[in-house]
Amino acid sequence: MSTATPNPPPAASVRGKFSYVYPAEVKGRFDRIRSWAFAGLILVYLLLPWFRIHGEQALLLDVARRRFHIFGLNLWAHEAPLLFLIMGGAAFALCFITAYWGRIWCGYACPQTVFITSIFRRVERWIEGTHLQRKRLDEEGADQPMWVVKKALKWSAFTLVSVLISHSFLAYFVGTDRLRQAMTHPPTANWTLFLVMAFIAGFILVDFGWVRERLCFTLCPYGRFQTVLMDRHSLAVVYDPVRGEPRRGSVAHATGDCVACDRCVQVCPTNIDIRNGVQMECIACTACADACDDVMARIKKPLGLIRYDTEAGLAGEPHRTARPRPFIYLGLTVLLWGALGLLLLTRADVDIVQLRAKGATYQQVTDPIRGPRVINHLRFDLTNLAHRDQEVTIACATQGFEVISATNPVPLPRGQVAHADLFIAFPKDRLDFGKATATLEFREGGKLVSRQDLTLVGPYQ
Ligand code: SF4
Ligand code: SF4
After folding, report:
1. Residues with Cβ < 8 Å from 298, sequence gap 6 or more?
2. CA-CA distance, 372 to 378, in Å (whole number)?
3. In a domain, 189, yes or no
4. Structural domain range at position 371
């Protein structure tokens, strides 16, 4: 017999007003695994922008300059289809992971969980003590001198950590070189960057310091989505009612393993009761599983009354690995990343875009030897997509047409865009109703990187 009672809104009063949660401290096997995972991830999140691959920042999403370095791959904003394939593949990969392993991302890898659990809650515990001491401190209020001292200390430490995280976060978007330059100059030299950094630090401070898990079930879109990505066979942190019910004390002679100690509720950072079933607010942090394992060990019952399992598993059904939904997500991931791989394999090292040149579209000149000629002014943007400096030679493959340029070959340093102004001169009699066609060839190290067909103009005759 189940004694489940409806939850009040998580971390909220019965009137729907959000209240502050004081989750109790917990230790256990899942906590140990998470602590190691968090330590590694904090290093990755903070240090990743400082690593280089082929001399470029390992991960740089420089939206302002429309450049993206993604683990050795250099992309520009005009390569939006490639960016779409990367992000679409990553989104479906996350769907696939969720369909099999539930909210493993929320519990083990989301920066929100990682920083709040490993740093903010730890700092809070050092300064304000256990959850009961923290609660008492807040109830006593600002009249107490210790309240002022502890809150000042805590929020100063939080601010320091938030500013540090904010700098690392910015490095992903502006690059470490720009960040280093800004950090070694006064804010007045980089007002925009300074204000963006201050805004991000403020957001982190409020979110990680105060809002915390309430963001997960109010604002996070993934938190909302995961319920439609999971099914009866997806892994989740669940309570086993067959073993646990009827809980002790709920009815006379109840023999369930749950002793109704409420430890699982006390440690929950979202303030829900896992015994009421899988809920959207559960971020799969496993604190309740560790707390319940501790209780089970003390009363000499098998561990795992709260454990990782599936709804089907709880109902005694066999686990189904081969299911259409995760395979569709996996298939879409493979499809998008496969297409990305193909496009990258066939991508040239130089991207060439013809632009409209300024001024008159053509000029007429008379060459004393070759007779009347027409000259068209053309402009090209050449983007270096390779991890090396290049030099591009431009030539006209059409007989009788000539390329005139002050800089040919065009030097193209790594990661740069070069502008090439060209003049194409050709005999006037090659015009047909004011138009002539020609083909330009762009070569790098003797290898053809692009061929472009041009329509040239001249006087109508
Ligand atoms: S911690 Fe375990 S025994 Fe205690 S109330 Fe929760 S489920 Fe029951
Ligand atoms: S129910 Fe358990 S796993 Fe879910 S958020 Fe609460 S403590 Fe974490």
Report:
1. none
2. 20
3. no
4. 350-457
- Single-letter residue type at 344: L
Distance 222 CA to ligand 2 centre (A): 17
Query: Domain for residue 89, yes or no?
Result: no
Distance 230 CA to ligand 1 centre (A): 25
pLDDT at 16: 55
In a domain, 406, yes or no: yes
Q: Which of 238, 268, 271, 286 to mutate to test the pocket of ligand 2 (most atoms within 8 A of CB)?
A: 268
Compute the chain's Rg from CA coordinates: 32
* Ligand 2, atom 6: closest residue by C-alpha: 268
Among 25, 33, 283, residue to substitute to test ligand 2 (most atoms within 8 Å of Cβ): 283
How far does the centroid of ligand 1 lie from the alpha carbon of residue 105, in Å?
Answer: 25
Kindly report, residue by residue over 177-204, the tens digit of the pLDDT: 999 999 999 999 999 999 999 999 999 9
pTM for the whole thing?
Answer: 0.82
CATH of the domain at 433: 2.60.40.2310
> Does residue 13 surpass a pLDDT of 60?
no
Task: Report the nearest atom of ligand 2 relative to the CA of 237.
Answer: 3
Model confidence pLDDT, tens digit, residues 146-172? 899 999 999 999 999 999 999 999 999
Q: Give me the number of domains the chain comprises.
A: 1
**Does any domain span residue 331?**
no
Distance CA 348, CA 353 (A): 13
